[in-house]
Write a structure and sequence with these properties.
By secondary structure, the chain is an alpha/beta fold. It folds into two domains: 178 residues, Rossmann fold, CATH 3.40.50; 86 residues, Orthogonal Bundle (N-(1-d-carboxylethyl)-l-norvaline Dehydrogenase, domain 2), CATH 1.10.1040.10. Helices cover 47% and strands 14% of the residues. It has eleven helices and eight strands. The protein has an eight-stranded mixed beta sheet with strand order 3-2-1-4-5-6-7-8, with helices on both faces. Helix 7 packs across helix 9. It is globular and about 55 Å long. Bound molecules: 3-hydroxybutanoyl-coenzyme A. 3-hydroxybutanoyl-coenzyme A (3HC) binds next to helix 2, helix 7 and helix 9.
Length: 286
């Protein structure tokens, strides 16, 4: 099917990155956020991000206006009604997502593909909230979505081949590399990445090395672009905890049982870069 108009629900780190990618690649993009102020903040953030690309000489300043003119952000849910594809990217809470899929199914035409950017929750549970389970799949971008090339296309057992192919084509048209994965918690990347991140926090708790030295070790010893603590701060500690909890719920594997320090930091609202402090302090602008 031909996708022209893309709806995004959620104006967090991922929703905003996906919206920027889609608009840059020619799609008409509508974003539904919780309030008009968060919707306005999303557009301002994207304008700033595009401005940085202009400064780097990677984007013409005339292109910024064209990209922004393709985007609308509002708190009005009905704006999603005539989208060809909607990608939900709200917090990792199954009940919240189920409610949104029920609403989307009610307002969108039968032809609309409904996708979720969840990293761990069962896509089948969202598909079964709708009267079109064959048109529901996962389209999982990575953080930062504007930069990371991979998109996991998640196939719940109900999805049609057409839906999966359209989702892959959408990812390619956003200059991404799609891989198809089964609807199983963590898919490929998070199932492998999160035991590593969790074990890095365990090493810190055990006092094996400082967090700076653990990060340096993985950067200089393994060639990773950033160490585990910088990455946890980038992903967000609340998101990381939800991912680990969902992985543990699915597999009951001790490697996925969140280390207590992570849970305590989330309770203390030390959420990473987005809250100004996580394992590192960003108030000085890291
Ligand atoms: N649009 C297009 N390109 C952009 C951009 C934008 N909005 N913002 C930045 N870029 C480009 C830059 O121009 C730059 O390209 P260049 O090197 O050719 O000039 C490149 O992206 C890198 O940007 P920066 O120079 O600003 O930043 P760094 O070089 O410091 O890299 C990083 C930052 C990309 C975050 C890098 O450290 C990295 O790859 N880290 C690992 C991130 C990772 O592992 N992510 C996956 C997390 S897991 C996940 O997301 C799953 C989820 O479910 C939790």
């Amino acid at each position: 099917m031909q996708i022209k108009r893309v709806g995004i629900i959620g104006s967090g780190i991922m929703g905003s990155g996906i919206a920027e990618c889609a608009a840059r690649n020619g799609y008409e993009v509508v974003v539904r956020s919780r309030s008009q102020s968060t919707a306005d903040a999303l557009l301002a953030g994207i304008e700033k991000s595009l401005g940085k690309q202009v400064e780097k000489g990677k984007l013409g300043s005339d292109e910024v206006d064209t990209i922004l003119s393709r985007m609308t952000a509002t708190s009005d849910f009905s704006i999603l009604a005539d989208c060809d594809l909607v990608i939900e990217s709200v917090l990792e809470d199954l009940q919240t997502k189920k409610h949104l899929f029920l609403e989307l199914d009610r307002i969108c035409p039968d032809s609309t593909i409904l996708a979720t950017n969840t990293s761990t929750l069962p896509v089948i549970e969202l598909a079964m909230e709708t009267g079109r389970p064959e048109k529901v799949c996962g389209i999982h971008f990575f953080n930062p979505a504007t930069v990371m090339k991979l998109v996991e296309i998640v196939r719940p057992i109900t999805a049609s081949n057409d839906t999966i192919e359209s989702a892959k084509e959408f990812a390619r048209s956003c200059a991404k590399t799609p891989v198809e994965v089964r609807d199983q918690a963590g898919f490929v990347v998070n199932a492998l990445l999160f035991p590593y991140l969790n074990n890095a926090i365990r090493l810190l708790e055990q006092g094996v090395a400082s967090l700076e030295d653990i990060d340096t070790s993985m950067k200089e010893g393994c060639g990773f672009p950033m160490g585990p603590f910088a990455l946890l701060d980038l992903i967000g500690l609340d998101t990381s905890l939800s991912i680990l909890d969902a992985l543990y719920e699915e597999y009951r594997d001790p490697n996925y049982a969140a280390v207590p320090l992570l849970r305590r930091m989330v309770s203390a609202e030390l959420l990473g870069k987005k809250s100004g402090r996580g394992f590192y302090d960003y108030h000085g602008g890291k």
